[in-house]
Structure formats: structure tokens, C-alpha cells
Design brief:
Shape: globular
Largest sheet: 5 strands, antiparallel
Number of strands: 44
Distance between the termini: 50 Å
Structural class: alpha+beta
Helix content: 10-25%
Radius of gyration: 30 Å
């Protein structure tokens, strides 16, 4: 058998800091291992050791690490996960082709021997390891200086592999070997190199990603360097780890092994981690991002996908070419064969918007997160977790719209409505919290929003029955800061909007990223439809705070004001669409505006300081209301069987250009038939085929200035958004899979690229190595385009 190592290994010891780093190696003697385990185990295990010494040691060695006559049996990766009965069968039958004879042992002896060999390959967490764990932890963070390179549960430094789950990934044998023989195996991505640059400088660090054409080096201070072949004159590879073999007393060594052998990963709940580290991405950078980074879901806290970058412009956009592709491995996710999944997988695609922070790109997929070299798309690290069982809706599909960043962490929600923090350097989990307080149909697909020192997120599942909420957590450790329900309790304000008795599962999901205004210190978040969405027999009234725009105090979640776009919604017109904050002269004076194109077919301009409606005009065909009154309420029309729109737009991103004063939105012209009893055959109105349009709206009048009809499938969950720029361009993707660049003044198409994929995400733009890129998710791929 080949000798293999665990998945998490170590990089090395920084000599100048005398820091500990772990690398997988196999050096633990069987006698010592047995001495550790058997004292606390049952007699059959002890019996197994005696039988091994008599029957097996001659070929496999007294320490089970193999000899010239037989392979190792301790710490062998291929044997991990095998059952005791499997080992018993192999021992009983032998492997004649490999020279191993059959052993006709009594059943009790065979069981004891099989259990022993099984234990030699079990993770450390399944072993009984003597030693003082508390003393081992003190040594790790103190005298041993292990934490100067490694992290455990968010404490320490991200200079070497995170060890929070080392006991689940390595055997006791491997842990001991990693301490005593650190150069035996080095974790992929932590190979030590010295790069000689063409300018005469040298760079020493770890090769986190490498091809024949580029290399990503993490230097010994933790910084990433993205180097191309033409930057490099030579690369020297070190043959051994920077880490020296651990020098510790026997007790210190054993206590350290005992501590490491009980590290089984971050569990849900606020983490107990040290103070925040200096550096990383402070909130001041997120509030005022540097040109070229894309630090939030919409690029700006205002929610406006408008970029000041101008390297790609109307004169050269026709030269854009595909620079790189990164494919999210969807095959890793096994989905149930239900009607819901079969239908939605017809047009499955990523909905993520990538983030870019100083040359690193962060993207999410179903139950996964990745850090990439933004220049080339090369993988730096990946994080994945198992799909949660018994989910419904988009969360069950693994839909996830992206991450948020702050300091040294990246945040994402999970399919089962957990909020997690990953270390941005290593991709390892630092904390995890369960957002829902009680079991309902909760999921989460939202890209979180960072405000000050908090990370804010919402939940999905409103079409299946839940009580919506928005919650804020302390970014450093996941501690809950505040909670805002979207459905009131009985006796609370707004309960009368449900006839005085709001249901526990009234809906009001919060699955789209909000916006934040630092000037007025106000958080804006939209809410979804009431539940049941079309059956209103038990929910009289307006049903607050469903279908609302909420203006919240970000410090405590207090409600400043709200505006309900569709009172008593019975058509699934949730308000989960972008909230774009704009400061401009409007109706004769400077104003703080909120722009919102709603699913109900109306485009709204609100005074965001108080929620007053300044303009409300239909941007698609509308038959249910003649307009919006002075009181902000829809002026309803009699029902005639044809309801327009089915949905005027959806969650896809919108953009406003201060140069053109146009608001860009992907609109859907589609009506639905809603007949009363007895009218199925008589007087059935005609229903036209669905049609999508990219429309540019004048925010002063609400009129459509120009539009581009979209050829291709208009229905299904295909909600691609837009990106505007100061260069006069507007980027979007159409239903047929084309990525398109147009002149944002007149709607003239200047460039397009056929992907032939399902496009349901929104574009973004960034700079890497002085070059502007446009990035977009299409199908399972992240595509990035740049100029030659």
C-alpha cells in the first residue's frame, strides 16, 4: 500500500519568529500509540495488539509503518473510512496476488485484530488520547508559539494551514509526525519558494497557486503577490519545510497532541476569538471603495451598479475578449430528483456577483466558496459544506448570491440560513451562527451587507411559510447585535393590518441585499410577499410589513419609516428588488433619493429621508391600478380577468448614471389570466407571449427613453442585471446567453459575446495589475473579459 497523508498539512516554521507549523508525516511508533489507546479501551483491543505482534509485525513492522516485506498499516489515507468488518474480511481472505496469506483466526481474535488496524487509521477525534488538553492549549498559544503561524477557531495567524478541524482530518499518528518530522509532507499551496524577479528583487513565500504561466505567492508576512511569467527570472524551490522539528519535553509534546486531537471544527454559535487584528479591509474602505475594487454585492453601499472605471469605453469596447473562465464544480452537489428540481435545473445558473479585494476574487456556488486570482482565475482556496436536508425553494437548489468582506473575514449565508465567517487568507471557517430562532421553512440565498462593525443578512422561503426577519451580527465573532421581524406579533404596532391576528408564518422574506446611507446612517431593506401568496382568506388588511421598503436604524434595527408598494398582495409581487440610493437635484432642489423598479410594474422615486413618493410611473403594461395616489397607495382598477404585469421586473440589479440621468432596468412584459368562477370558457381574455426589454427610464418623468427588445426565452428564473459606467457603457446579458455592451445614452449595441449559457446574474467590473476587467457568472462559470 502507498503511504498517504491527511488532507490538512502544514507549511513551515518562520525561523525569525520561531513559530510552529504542522506538516503531515507518519512517525508514531505502534507501541506508543497502543500504549496511549489501550489503557482506556476494552480488553479486546489489547488482545488485538498481542495478535498483531505475533502475526503481523514481521511484515508490517512492530510500529505498523511497514518493512521491505509489507506495506504500512498505520496512517494510510486509503484505509481511512473503511469499516472494521472490511478489515476483518481482508485479513481472513488475505491478498494472494500481493503476497499476503489468509489468516484463519478464531472470530474473537479476528475481530480484535480488525478493530486494531481500523483504529490505526481513524481520525484523532475518534481516539482516546492521554494528556492535559488545557496545558496543550496554553502551550499552543504561549511557549510553543504555534499561533504565530496557525489559527484555531479564529485565534492566531493565517500564515500556515488552519488547524481548527485537524482532529477530524488527521490521525494521532499523523499529528505526532507533523510535529517531529515537518518536512515529510507539505500542504499543497504551502510549498516554500524563492522567486527571483527580473528587476533584481527576490520574494520568498508559499506557492498558493502555480502554473507554467503564473504564480501566486503568499509572502512570509501573509501578503499575496500575483506574478506573471514575464515578471520572473527564476523560481527556487525549497526541499524542506521552514519549520524545525518541535523541541519540547515529552509532557509538552503529549499535551499538545491531546489538545490538537480534540479540534473538530467550528460549531454553530458565537465564537470566542481574540481581538480583531489590524489590517485587512476596514469599513472606511467599504464606505469609500478604492477605484478598481468591488467590495460589496453591488459594488457600492448605495446599491447602484455604477462604476467610475473608464479604461474600457465606447471607443474600445469592441476589442473586449475573454480573458479567463473559472468553473464551479456543480457535480459535487447531488440534488433530489423531484419535480421542483427538474424544472429549475433546466435553467440553473450561478447568481453570484464576485467580490474583488486587492487582487483576490471571492465567489460562491451551491454550498461552496472560492478565492481566485482576479488576474487569471486560478484557485487559491475553496470551502464547501454538505447540502442541508429537507429544504425547499431556491435555498434547496443551492442558490447563493455572494459574499461580504470586512477585516480579515469573508461572510456568506448557507442554504439552511446559517451565517458563516471564513478567513479571507485560508478559507477556513472562523465562526458560524444559526439565524432562525425556530424551525420554519427558512433558507438563505442573500449576499450579506457589512455596515460598520456588523454583518447583516436576511432569509428566504416566504412562498413556503415563514416569519421574515433581518438580523445584524458582530463581524468579529458572530454575536447577535439586533433583530427585526417583518411580521408583527399580536398586539404590536401594525398587527391591525392583519385583522389583529398576524400569523406566525406570514411571509415577508428578506432575501435580497439591502443598501446603506452613511450620511443619514440609514439601512434600507426590502421585504417579500405575504403567505399564502394568493390565498388571502385569513389575512385581511394591508399585511405589514410585507412588500415593503424598510428604513432602519443600523445600530439597533429600529424602524425609521416604511413604504408598502403593494398593500394586501395576492399576486406574489414581493418588493425584493434593488434599492438604489442617489443624491441629485430633483424637482428643483438637491435631494436624497431612493430609486426602485418594482415587481408590481411601477417605477418609484422616493425621498429616502422620509419615504415620501416623489414619482411613481408604470414602466410595463399595468392593468391592476391606474396609478399611485398622493397618499402613496395604489389606485385600484376593477378586475377584468387579465392581470398585468405578471412581474414587471425581479431581483436583478439595476443602475443609474448621473451623466445621462437614466435608470436602467430589465423589464418583463407578461400578463396572466385570473378568472373568477364560471368564466373559464366564457370571455377568456387573450394572453400575449412574454417579452423582455432592457429599458432606460428618465428619473424626472419616469418615461422610457430607449429600449432594447430581448430575443430568447423570457420566462423561467432568468434574471440578469445591468452594470453602468462613467465611460458611457452599459453591460448586461440577454436571455439567449449573449453578454452585451451598449452605449448607455442611446442604447446602441457596441459589443457582444455569445456564451450559449444560462445567464441569471449581474455583471461587475474591477482592476487587476492596472487592467480593467468585466466579470459575470453564466451557467456554472465565472467569465472575465478584458482588453488585449
Amino acid at each position: 500500500m502507498m503511504r498517504e497523508s491527511g488532507r490538512i498539512r502544514s507549511a513551515g516554521w518562520h525561523k525569525s519568529r520561531s513559530a510552529l507549523a504542522l506538516v503531515v508525516a507518519l512517525s508514531l511508533g505502534l507501541g506508543l500509540l497502543l500504549a496511549q489507546n489501550f489503557a482506556a479501551e476494552s480488553p479486546p483491543s489489547s488482545e488485538g495488539a498481542k495478535i498483531f505482534a505475533q502475526q503481523c509485525a514481521g511484515c508490517h513492522g512492530a510500529d505498523a509503518h511497514g518493512t521491505d516485506h509489507g506495506p504500512p498499516l498505520a496512517g494510510v489515507g486509503r484505509l481511512r473510512g473503511r469499516s472494521i468488518s472490511w478489515f476483518g474480511e481482508v485479513i481472513h481472505r488475505g491478498i494472494p496476488s500481493e503476497g499476503m496469506p489468509a489468516f484463519n483466526l478464531p472470530p474473537k481474535e479476528l475481530d480484535a485484530l480488525a478493530a486494531l488496524v481500523h483504529s490505526l487509521n481513524s481520525p484523532a477525534a475518534e481516539s482516546t488520547v492521554p494528556g492535559d488538553r488545557v496545558a496543550g492549549e496554553e502551550y499552543f498559544f504561549g511557549k510553543g508559539r504555534c499561533a504565530s503561524c496557525h489559527m484555531v477557531y479564529g485565534r492566531g495567524e493565517a500564515m500556515a494551514p488552519d488547524l481548527s478541524d485537524v482532529a477530524s482530518e488527521m490521525t494521532v499518528d499523523e499529528i505526532r509526525g507533523s510535529l517531529l518530522q515537518p518536512s515529510a509532507h507539505v500542504t499543497p499551496g504551502y510549498e516554500l519558494v524563492t522567486v527571483h524577479l527580473r528587476d533584481g528583487k527576490t520574494l520568498q513565500g508559499f506557492a498558493r497557486a502555480r502554473t507554467n504561466f503564473e504564480i501566486v505567492v503568499q509572502d512570509l508576512k501573509g501578503q499575496f503577490h500575483f506574478l506573471q511569467a514575464n515578471d520572473i527570472s527564476a523560481v527556487s524551490e525549497e526541499k524542506k519545510s521552514l519549520m524545525s522539528p518541535l523541541k519540547a519535553t515529552p509532557d509538552e509534546l503529549q499535551n499538545l497532541i491531546a489538545y490538537l486531537s480534540q479540534l473538530t471544527g467550528v460549531k454553530p454559535g458565537a465564537a470566542k476569538i481574540g481581538p480583531s487584528k489590524p489590517g485587512g479591509v476596514p469599513f472606511s474602505r467599504i464606505a469609500h471603495p478604492r477605484l478598481g475594487n468591488w467590495l460589496t454585492y453591488n459594488g457600492e453601499l448605495s446599491g447602484n451598479r455604477y462604476s467610475e472605471l473608464t479604461q474600457i469605453n465606447t471607443t474600445n469596447v469592441n476589442q473586449l475578449r475573454l480573458e479567463w473562465i473559472f468553473t464551479v464544480p456543480l457535480w459535487k452537489q447531488f440534488l433530489p430528483e423531484t419535480a421542483y428540481f427538474i424544472e429549475n435545473m433546466k435553467y440553473f445558473g450561478l447568481e453570484v456577483t464576485p467580490l474583488v479585494v486587492d487582487g483576490l476574487m471571492y465567489v460562491t456556488g451551491p454550498h461552496q466558496a472560492f478565492a481566485l486570482d482576479a488576474l487569471t482565475g486560478r484557485l487559491i482556496w475553496e470551502y464547501s459544506r454538505a447540502r442541508a436536508p429537507a429544504l425547499v425553494g431556491d435555498a434547496a437548489l443551492g442558490t447563493n448570491r455572494g459574499m461580504a468582506v470586512l477585516g480579515d473575514k469573508a461572510f456568506m449565508t448557507t442554504d439552511d440560513a446559517h451565517l458563516i465567517a471564513l478567513n479571507r487568507t485560508t478559507g477556513k471557517l472562523e465562526w458560524e451562527v444559526v439565524m432562525p430562532e425556530e424551525a420554519m421553512h427558512y433558507g438563505s440565498t442573500v449576499a450579506p451587507l457589512v455596515v460598520k462593525d456588523m454583518v447583516i443578512a436576511g432569509v428566504s422561503g416566504g412562498d413556503w411559510g415563514l416569519r421574515g426577519f433581518v438580523a445584524a451580527y458582530r463581524a468579529s465573532d458572530g454575536k447577535l447585535v439586533w433583530w427585526r421581524w417583518t411580521i408583527p406579533d399580536k398586539g404590536e404596532p401594525a398587527a391591525e393590518s392583519w385583522g389583529g391576528n398576524p400569523p406566525k408564518t406570514g411571509g415577508g422574506a428578506t432575501w435580497l441585499t439591502g443598501s446603506y446611507d452613511p450620511e443619514t446612517d440609514t439601512l434600507y431593506w426590502s421585504t417579500g410577499n405575504p403567505f399564502p401568496d394568493s390565498d388571502d382568506r385569513n389575512r385581511p388588511g394591508d399585511n405589514l410589513y410585507t412588500d415593503c421598503i424598510l428604513a432602519l436604524n443600523p445600530n439597533d434595527g429600529g424602524l425609521k419609516w416604511f413604504y408598502q408598494v403593494t398593500p394586501h398582495d395576492v399576486r406574489d409581487w414581493d418588493a425584493n428588488a434593488p434599492l438604489v440610493l442617489v443624491d441629485t437635484k430633483y424637482q428643483g432642489r438637491e435631494r436624497n433619493l431612493l430609486l426602485h423598479a418594482d415587481k408590481n410594474g411601477f417605477f418609484y422615486v422616493l425621498d429616502r429621508t422620509n419615504g415620501h413618493v416623489l414619482l411613481a410611473k408604470s414602466f410595463v403594461r399595468v392593468t391592476w391600478a391606474s396609478g399611485i395616489g398622493a397618499d402613496g397607495r395604489p389606485q385600484l382598477l376593477p378586475e377584468n380577468g387579465l392581470v398585468c404585469p405578471e412581474e414587471g421586473t425581479n431581483w436583478s440589479s439595476t443602475a443609474f448614471s448621473p451623466e445621462t440621468r437614466l435608470y436602467y432596468v430589465m423589464a418583463l412584459e407578461k400578463c396572466s389570466v385570473k378568472l373568477s368562477a364560471g368564466r373559464w370558457r366564457v370571455g377568456r381574455p387573450e394572453e400575449d407571449a412574454a417579452k423582455k426589454y432592457l429599458r432606460a427610464l428618465d428619473i424626472d418623468s419616469g418615461k422610457i427613453v430607449w429600449e432594447i427588445p430581448q430575443i430568447g426565452p423570457a420566462e423561467g428564473k432568468r434574471h440578469a442585471g445591468v452594470l453602468a459606467s462613467a465611460s458611457g457603457l452599459l453591460f448586461y446579458s440577454d436571455p439567449s446567453g449573449e453578454i452585451v455592451g451598449v452605449d448607455n445614452r442611446i442604447g446602441k449595441t457596441l459589443w457582444h459575446f455569445p456564451t450559449n449559457g444560462e445567464s441569471k446574474a449581474s455583471p461587475m467590473t474591477y482592476m487587476a495589475k492596472g487592467k480593467q476587467f468585466v466579470g459575470l457568472a453564466v451557467g456554472p462559470n465565472i467569465l472575465c473579459f478584458g482588453l488585449p
